[in-house]
Design brief:
By secondary structure, this protein is an alpha/beta fold. Helices cover about 50% and strands about 10% of the residues. It contains 35 helices and 24 strands. The protein has a 7-stranded parallel beta sheet, sandwiched between helices. Strands 16, 17, 18, 19, 20, 21 and 22 form a 7-stranded parallel beta sheet that branches. It has a two-stranded antiparallel sheet with strand order 1-2. A hairpin with a 4-residue loop joins strand 9 and strand 10 (about 390).
């Protein structure tokens, strides 16, 4: 804690003390009415509870009436009704909380089954749990230590808010906890007459809809988020499952809203394109390059070591570094830029003063802006902190000795400009040259991208650390939880590179169909709350992103766990040997141990060492996650040793026996510090629940990633100064503080990543809301007539703005261009109406009336209901197509936008500006295409549809539910649906069409623009 923070705390007091003081009167109010509940029968207490629901409904109706009398807008009316509902809940909170507590008392001793195991209800709310329930009801985050019964705490606000009848969502970190808690706490809810459901991965839409219609619904954040995205891709009301976002409680809120918020939720489909085989093609080249770089780095390390060994006493520079030291430092710095995780290099860095020497030399090169000179002596350079790899000229020459230019991306704008100013070329030759330039640029970009991703997969991503291979698939391992992320794939081709590296099937690339960040999904809820054992360290982020305050709740019993200082070793080998010795000692003593590791590889290394020493133990990591609950429940038994990755068993208590309490309780042994202090606190929090004894310690080494990248210089200096020998350990509070500072650095970096992601997604979120609102209006509305009129008005505004530049002068309007546009969209010829129209309003009215007349004539020729269905189908399908194209375009823009910083431009502002232009264009294109498909539909009677008809279009297509309606032009997906074509008694002759110009091809007129932006716009 800083000096300023200490002073402010002394003057104003601690925030937690103020929170406690504000909550205490409410707890006293609940406890004062609690005794009255004991006199009620079971039926009476249920009636008293459900009577609150009737009061809420009455107040809601009254508020709606009052709001309409006051003339409130729809948005203000919704807010007015919501506030009335919340005021009613606050009034009834003391009684309802007392009812829920008394219900828990009545259930004590009840035996029932949870996940197939018989359990007995033995819980009644403590006062501190009532306090936590109040915080959750008020829409804040409650921090309660592990073992304080957060699952029971949540029953209080859940039962109260479920009385609104609008649905309460409880978000857990995995399916097991969702299902377990819905059954476990479901006993209490069902006693009170509430309905409880749980969303599981394998459920179909009908089952999901049923679960969402219950008063209370449990599930993971992925299930809720993906259901929202799928609902906004549905083409029928029956396919939608959610009914709104009213109130959510997020269990382990730091895990869900912070750790998992770095990656957005994405629904993607495979691109309808040939498989990109570049990863397999270049794999052998990259393997060869990595081998050569490894050999080069080993030589550099050996040479650096030789130079350092040759330095005689007194040759070291007094004020700076000597020439020999500088020479050795350059060689080791080059090796570090080549393969930072090289084992020989990491061993060299344990040598006294070596790491500090390399840092000094690196600072000198950075200061003189000559770091590029170091990189050029390598085949490729690696910036491990930024996760960036760059091919050097030496690397390019090695990959393609005959033509190194193959691995340099040409400057496309410059090439196109050179072609334009070349007077010796004809227009046709210029077009051809431009096509060749674009093809060259695309080919080289694709090749270099594949090489870079393969290099990353071989040098920065480790098997059994960042990912595992199971059943022929590469599965990502969550860096925070140690669990596999099924269904998730690394983006931008990295996953395909890993698949090529591991010799498993390389899946097709995918295209984003719908996406949303965790932050923007949960910000949709009217009221959001969360609970965890560790949130204070991220309090600023919760307030900044979600407007959620964090309230610390005191423990029911004081924590007596002993937290020891970290023990630091030079190497991982020394660390592991000491950890095994400690585990042997604790095993003989009979004390249970939970060993926390940061990766699958580390957990399996320790497991092998224990097996060699014949010490029985359990391992829980991404490969054994199915036995998670079973393993964790046994972790408190005598002499039990459980090796687990981060946060394994979170939400499941490790219960001690009387025997294990007597020998010191659960011992926590962390083998590495995590990137976040929260993860370490969560591991420590597994021990010492409800006043139980316990102990914790972390064993670290200078080779650990966190220490190596962010914190080991200071510690290495201390070790050098103290003359620590191999096998010796250093333990000091100053060292622990140094590690905490390193963690704060990483936390700050990760926060900036999440905030950066959110800033960019906020641009998409505004666009997403507009598109989804229109889509839902079309899907949910009984009639789409009003929406068609709205689309037509927007379209006419856009068309008039293009063709009638001077509104006051009708003589200057582009009547020919306007006529072509309307012929293309409405099949409407306005040449005969030109005379007599002098204003924009007259023009719009004339077009609108003529278009409506065409539409009315079409509707008269077919069943109105079926035509309405057809219109709805066209609107939804066109929106989906154009939105997918827009998502792809925004992805492309996002990938390259950071380069604008080199031109002294803010990439975010540029992204917002270009994103807005792209969205305006896509909405314009969506309106045009929607109207074109509706107005140019060909209506035929049943008799006519049996006769062979050849139209000027490429394909004829029929919508299943719209008999007699055939849109002219290709179907929405671009493919013919032969199974739905009408039966024809005569053979139809093939349709011959001219060669088609692609939308993104250069226009034939020689303008240099894309076809869709030039002549293709009106064709």
């Amino acid at each position: 804690m800083s000096v300023l923070t200490n002073i402010l705390t002394r003057v104003f007091g601690k925030k937690s003390d103020k929170d406690y003081k504000a909550l205490s009167p409410l707890v006293e109010e609940i406890t004062s009415v609690y005794p009255d509940m004991a006199s009620l029968t079971d039926d009476e207490i249920k009636d008293k509870f459900l009577s609150v629901r009737k009061d809420i409904e009455t107040r809601r109706i009254e508020a709606r009436k009052q709001g309409k009398v006051d003339g409130l807008s729809q948005t203000d009316l919704d807010e007015f009704i919501y506030r009335s509902e919340q005021d009613t809940l606050n009034e009834h909170m003391p009684d309802v909380f007392a009812i829920v507590k008394d219900t828990a008392r009545r259930l004590v001793g009840t035996k029932f089954k949870v996940m197939g195991q018989e359990v007995s209800w033995e819980m009644v709310h403590y006062d501190v749990q009532l306090m936590g329930g109040i915080v959750l009801h008020q829409g804040m985050i409650t921090e309660m230590k592990t073992g304080e019964g957060k699952t029971l705490v949540a029953t209080l606000p859940i039962a109260l808010n479920a009385l609104t009848g609008r649905g309460v969502h409880i978000i857990t970190v995995n399916d097991y906890l969702a299902e377990r808690d819905s059954q476990w706490m479901g006993l209490l809810y069902k006693f009170l007459g509430l309905t409880v459901g749980c969303i599981l991965n394998q459920m179909n839409p009908q089952q999901r809809r049923e679960m969402y219609n219950y008063d209370i619904t449990y599930g993971t954040n992925q299930e809720f988020g993906f259901d929202y995205l799928r609902d906004n891709m549905a083409i029928s009301r029956d396919d939608q499952v959610q009914r709104g976002h009213v109130y959510a409680i997020v269990d382990e809120v730091d895990s869900v809203l912070v750790d998992e918020a770095r990656v957005p939720l994405i629904i993607s489909g495979q691109v309808n394109a040939p498989m990109n085989r570049r990863y397999q093609e270049h794999k052998s080249l990259v393997e060869s390059l990595v081998r050569k770089q490894t050999y080069l780095v080993n030589e550099l390390v050996a040479e650096g070591e030789k130079v350092l060994d040759s330095i005689q006493e007194g040759e070291s520079g007094r004020m700076g570094i000597s020439e020999k030291e500088r020479e050795a430092g350059i060689k080791l710095l080059t090796a570090n830029r080549g393969i930072p995780k090289n084992k020989k290099l990491m061993k060299m860095f344990q040598r006294q003063g070596t790491k500090q020497l390399v840092r000094t030399v690196e600072s000198e090169f950075i200061r003189d802006k000559k770091l590029g000179e170091i990189d050029e002596s390598l085949y490729f350079s690696i910036d491990e902190k930024s996760n960036i790899i760059d091919l050097t000229e030496m690397g390019r020459n090695t990959l393609s000795p005959s033509n190194p230019e193959d691995f340099i991306i040409p400057d496309l704008p410059e090439m196109l400009h050179d072609i334009d100013v070349d007077d010796q070329l004809t227009d046709k030759e210029k077009l051809q040259k431009k096509d060749e330039a674009q093809a060259l640029h695309a080919s080289r970009s694709d090749r270099i991208h594949a090489i870079n991703q393969l290099l990353k997969s071989y040098t920065l991503f480790e098997k059994d650390v960042d990912y595992i291979v199971q059943e022929g698939k590469v599965l990502i391992v969550d860096e925070h939880t140690g669990r596999t992320l099924h269904g998730r794939r690394y983006s931008d081709g990295l996953h395909q590179a890993l698949e090529a590296k591991e010799n498993v099937k390389v899946e097709k690339e995918t295209q984003t169909m719908a996406t949303i960040t965790i932050q923007n999904y949960f910000r949709m809820y009217e009221k959001l709350a969360g609970m965890t054992g560790t949130a204070v360290t991220e309090a600023a982020e919760f307030m900044d992103i979600y407007k959620l305050d964090v309230v610390e709740i005191p423990t029911n019993e004081s924590v007596v766990r002993v937290d020891n200082e970290d023990q630091i070793f030079r190497t991982k080998r020394e660390k592991y040997n000491s950890a095994i010795a400690k585990l042997e000692e604790l095993f003989r003593k009979g004390q249970p141990v939970l060993v926390g590791t940061t990766s699958v590889d580390e957990s399996e290394t320790l497991s092998r060492m224990l097996r060699r020493n014949k010490i029985p133990h359990n391992v829980l990591n991404a490969k054994q996650h199915q036995r998670e609950a079973e393993i964790i429940q046994l972790a408190g038994q005598r002499s039990a040793i459980t090796i687990a990755t981060n946060m394994a068993g979170r939400g499941t208590d490790i219960k001690l026996t009387d025997t294990t309490r007597s020998v010191g309780g659960l011992f926590i042994l962390g083998t590495s510090r995590a990137e976040s202090r929260r993860i370490d606190l969560q591991l420590r929090g597994r021990s010492g629940r409800q006043g139980d004894p316990g102990e914790s310690v972390f064993y670290l080494s200078l080779e650990d990633d966190l220490m190596r990248l962010f914190g080991s210089d200071r510690v290495a200096k201390i070790m050098d100064r103290l003359g620590i020998e191999e096998g010796e350990v250093i333990t000091h509070s100053m060292v622990s503080k140094s590690i905490e500072r390193a963690q704060k650095k990483v936390e700050g970096h990760n926060y900036s990543i999440r905030k950066h992601l959110l800033e960019y997604d906020d641009v998409m979120n505004n666009q997403r809301e507009i598109v989804y609102d229109r889509r839902n209006y079309a899907l949910m509305g009984e009639s789409v007539g009003n929406l068609i009129n709205e689309i037509m008005d927007e379209y006419l505004d856009d068309v008039v703005a293009v063709h009638c530049v001077k509104p006051e002068s009708s003589g200057s309007w582009d009547w020919e261009g306007l006529n072509k546009e309307l012929l293309f969209t409405f099949s409407l010829d306005i040449q005969s109406h030109e005379l007599g129209i002098t204003t924009i309003d007259e023009l719009k009215d004339m077009i609108r009336n003529a278009a409506n007349a065409i539409l009315s004539a079409k509707k008269e020729m077919v069943d109105p209901v079926k035509f309405e269905d057809f219109e709805k189908f066209v609107i939804l399908k066109t929106i989906d197509e154009k939105w997918m194209e827009h998502l792809h375009g925004m992805d492309q823009l996002r990938e390259g936008i950071n380069l604008r910083a080199y031109g002294q431009k803010n990439p975010l502002i540029e992204y917002k500006s270009e994103g807005y232009s792209m969205f305006s264009q896509v909405m314009e294109d969506t309106n045009r295409e929607t109207l074109r498909r509706i107005f140019r539909v060909q209506i035929r009677s049943a008799q006519q549809s049996q006769a062979p008809t050849v139209t000027a279009s490429n394909v004829q297509y029929r919508h299943d539910d719209s008999s007699g309606i055939v849109p002219v032009g290709p179907p929405p997906g671009g493919q013919q649906s032969s199974s739905n074509m009408p039966t024809r008694p005569q053979r139809v002759q093939p349709i011959h069409v001219e060669e088609k110009i692609g939308n993104n091809d250069p226009c034939h007129c020689g303008s240099g623009k894309k076809y869709k932006k030039c002549h293709g716009r009106n064709n």
